[in-house]
């Protein structure tokens, strides 16, 4: 089955460019388009895309609020890939905190766009570059530190979280720790449960905001 994608951007040329790049791949299908975040929830409900590639800044409803709306009102929501012009934009970080699964620069090369969609669809790696890590560290807070302490991660779970924060996939973490892939999946699930995180992105945000890992 192909990875199905919904494109959301107020610039028709951006949507056309993304569609051309993605539909050139045999394993990706663009199932719909929207010009504003206000149209996202109805389209997600009707089209059931695997991934929503969404501009972070739009005139009526921006990508941050649209992300919140999808996660709040849609059962089994799709992965959300934020598309933006600037990698150190605080809007991007706010979208990730709201529940987006990764982000993509509009100037990215075609191969990078395809890789980002596949990566987010698989859900086992992160698109969380250095600029966004720095923003996460700047948002550090005592509540975040207290929450991580309450999680009481085991030594192995802590090691897995550190490697997740470096953007490693389950397979890469397994190779680094010399354990099986199923063992890593179990540790990742335990980390998410203890942190109360919806997904890997939310867990990594918690790790940076708490100071558990640093952006260096």
TrEMBL record:
<dbReference type="InterPro" id="IPR011006">
    <property type="entry name" value="CheY-like_superfamily"/>
</dbReference>
<dbReference type="InterPro" id="IPR001789">
    <property type="entry name" value="Sig_transdc_resp-reg_receiver"/>
</dbReference>
<keyword id="KW-0804">Transcription</keyword>
<protein>
    <submittedName>
        <fullName>Response regulator transcription factor</fullName>
    </submittedName>
</protein>
<keyword id="KW-0238">DNA-binding</keyword>
<keyword id="KW-0805">Transcription regulation</keyword>
<dbReference type="Pfam" id="PF00196">
    <property type="entry name" value="GerE"/>
</dbReference>
<dbReference type="InterPro" id="IPR000792">
    <property type="entry name" value="Tscrpt_reg_LuxR_C"/>
</dbReference>
<dbReference type="GO" id="GO:0006355">
    <property type="term" value="P:regulation of DNA-templated transcription"/>
</dbReference>
<dbReference type="Pfam" id="PF00072">
    <property type="entry name" value="Response_reg"/>
</dbReference>
<dbReference type="GO" id="GO:0000160">
    <property type="term" value="P:phosphorelay signal transduction system"/>
</dbReference>
<feature type="domain" description="HTH luxR-type">
    <location>
        <begin position="146"/>
        <end position="211"/>
    </location>
</feature>
<feature type="modified residue" description="4-aspartylphosphate">
    <location>
        <position position="55"/>
    </location>
</feature>
<dbReference type="GO" id="GO:0003677">
    <property type="term" value="F:DNA binding"/>
</dbReference>
<dbReference type="InterPro" id="IPR058245">
    <property type="entry name" value="NreC/VraR/RcsB-like_REC"/>
</dbReference>
<dbReference type="InterPro" id="IPR016032">
    <property type="entry name" value="Sig_transdc_resp-reg_C-effctor"/>
</dbReference>
<feature type="domain" description="Response regulatory">
    <location>
        <begin position="4"/>
        <end position="121"/>
    </location>
</feature>
<dbReference type="InterPro" id="IPR039420">
    <property type="entry name" value="WalR-like"/>
</dbReference>
<keyword id="KW-0597">Phosphoprotein</keyword>
């Amino acid at each position: 089955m192909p990875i199905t994608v919904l494109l959301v951007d107020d610039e028709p040329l951006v949507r056309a460019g993304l569609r051309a790049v993605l539909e050139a791949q045999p394993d990706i299908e663009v199932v719909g388009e929207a010009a504003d975040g206000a149209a996202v929830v109805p389209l997600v409900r009707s089209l059931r895309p695997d991934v929503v590639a969404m501009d972070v800044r739009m005139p009526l409803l921006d990508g941050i609020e649209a992300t919140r709306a999808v996660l709040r009102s849609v059962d089994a929501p799709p992965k959300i890939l934020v598309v933006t012009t600037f990698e150190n934009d605080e809007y991007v970080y706010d979208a990730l905190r709201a529940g987006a699964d990764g982000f993509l620069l509009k100037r990215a090369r075609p191969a990078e766009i395809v890789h980002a969609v596949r990566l987010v669809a698989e859900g086992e790696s992160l698109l969380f570059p250095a600029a966004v890590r720095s923003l996460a560290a700047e948002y550090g807070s005592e509540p975040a530190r207290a929450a991580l302490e309450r999680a009481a991660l085991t030594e192995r779970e802590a090691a897995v979280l550190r490697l997740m924060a470096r953007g490693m996939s389950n397979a890469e973490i397994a190779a680094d720790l010399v354990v099986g892939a199923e063992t890593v999946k179990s540790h990742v699930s335990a980390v998410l449960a203890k942190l109360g995180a919806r997904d890997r992105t939310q867990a990594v945000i918690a790790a940076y905001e708490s100071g558990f890992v640093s952006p260096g």
